[in-house]
């Protein structure tokens, strides 16, 4: 009788294990959700899709002949559009993980939708630090950057170089407001002053009035708390106003190599920016960038930090699927959080219990045209912020998972 009970218990455990650790539909589907047609199309767009495909190819079945499909869609920088796509992927199309998602409003909406579902959210381009704070979810891993890191590390680096008086040009949605709030807190807490701030809509083409206000403030540093086409337009017009030539420093909180390429090194020279990834850092990043540049439709373009983050997070997720035999978030995400080691693109990396991926950050200055020796040779390294200093400490995260 005891033997029978043990056999039944074993059978039940095997059935339960099979039900919880399996690959749904015998295929792992990863959905790249981003801005394909708007202001983030160069830093994300189809480049992110190619980065995800590269990760799937390098995964190569994970030694277990696991089939991977990459799908993609354009959220148009609208939370309701992104939410509708994600819901269809979840309920109808069998997508197992969503990756990328630039635009914090869209990302926070997706984060809420996927909480406690079977889907994993690889928020490799969603910058809101709420993802590891008040909106923390057991389904979410946040790679590359966030507003805390962007605001604090950039402000710290500039203050250490004498930039204590600031004026902000801030995009009027969650991303910009979050960056400005974090930076202001740091600046005022370390003897600096914020002399003013101008808010502008997403997709602004004319920054003249905002730049005149910034120029008139006499601030030592003008902080661009925006991204994509907004940052490009602001930098171009700042050059026309001669802002940097007249002694004010221009710092971009969220800028990528594609943006610098788009505005041209002559316009961007002297610009300070914080990045988590630069294609020309070492042999590993250069090898990845060379492969990326040769992909269909890339036409020699170098990858942005966001596109590198899509590759790294997709590959990490697929490795977790192979390790657990499951594409369910409740199995894959805890497995991802075990990682401690060196990521080829982001260096020394840890995935914390709140879902924050911790790695070094770098302050760069855009080179002068005569300093650039080959295509996309745009940055010179100013300082390195170690991984343990670059992101909000875990104890301050406010995440219910770690209380």
From TrEMBL:
Key words, A-Z: Amino-acid transport, Signal, Transport
Any GO BP annotation: amino acid transport
Entry-linked Gene3D superfamilies: 3.40.50.2300
Pfam families tied to this protein: Peripla_BP_6 (PF13458)
Signal peptide: 1-21
Leucine-binding protein domain span: 28-367
InterPro entries: BCAA_transport (IPR051010), Leu-bd (IPR028081), Peripla_BP_I (IPR028082)
UniProt family annotation: Belongs to the leucine-binding protein family.
Name of the featured protein: Amino acid/amide ABC transporter substrate-binding protein, HAAT family
Species assigned in the record: Bradyrhizobium shewense
Phylogenetic placement of the source organism: Bacteria, Pseudomonadati, Pseudomonadota, Alphaproteobacteria, Hyphomicrobiales
């Amino acid at each position: 009788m005891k033997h029978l009970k043990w056999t039944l218990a074993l059978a039940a455990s095997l059935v339960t294990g099979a039900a919880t650790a399996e690959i749904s539909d015998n295929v792992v589907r990863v959905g790249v959700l981003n801005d394909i047609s708007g202001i983030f199309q160069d830093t994300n767009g189809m480049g992110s899709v190619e980065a995800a495909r590269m990760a799937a190819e390098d995964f190569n079945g994970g030694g277990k002949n696991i089939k991977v499909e990459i799908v993609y869609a354009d959220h148009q920088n609208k939370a309701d559009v992104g939410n509708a796509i994600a819901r269809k992927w979840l309920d109808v199309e069998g997508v197992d993980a969503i990756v990328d998602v630039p635009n914090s409003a869209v990302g926070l909406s997706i984060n809420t939708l996927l909480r406690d579902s079977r889907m994993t959210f690889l928020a490799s381009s969603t910058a809101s630090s709420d993802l590891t704070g008040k909106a923390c979810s057991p389904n979410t891993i946040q790679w590359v950057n966030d507003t805390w890191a962007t605001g604090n590390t950039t402000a710290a680096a500039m203050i250490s170089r004498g930039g204590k008086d600031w004026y902000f040009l801030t995009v009027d949605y969650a991303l910009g407001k979050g960056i400005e709030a974090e930076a202001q807190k740091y600046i005022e807490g370390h003897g600096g002053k914020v002399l003013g701030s101008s808010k502008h809509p997403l997709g602004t083409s004319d920054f003249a009035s905002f730049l005149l206000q910034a120029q008139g403030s006499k601030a030592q540093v003008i902080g661009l708390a925006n991204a994509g086409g907004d940052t490009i337009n602001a930098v171009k017009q700042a050059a026309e106003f001669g802002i940097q030539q007249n002694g004010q420093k221009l710092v971009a909180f969220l800028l990528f190599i594609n943006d610098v390429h788009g505005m041209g090194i002559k316009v961007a020279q002297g610009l300070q920016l914080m990045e988590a990834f630069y294609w020309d850092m070492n042999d590993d990043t250069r090898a990845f960038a060379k492969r990326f540049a040769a992909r269909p439709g890339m036409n020699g373009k170098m990858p942005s930090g966001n596109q590198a983050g899509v590759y790294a997070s997709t590959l990490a997720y697929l490795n977790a699927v192979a390790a657990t035999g499951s594409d369910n978030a409740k199995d894959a995400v805890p497995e991802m959080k075990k990682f401690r080691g060196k990521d080829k693109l982001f260096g020394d990396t840890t995935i914390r219990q709140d879902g924050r991926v911790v790695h070094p950050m770098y302050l760069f200055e855009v080179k002068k045209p005569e300093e650039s020796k080959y295509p996309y040779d745009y940055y010179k390294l100013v300082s390195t912020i170690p991984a343990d200093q670059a992101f909000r400490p875990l104890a301050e995260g406010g995440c219910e998972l770690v209380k």
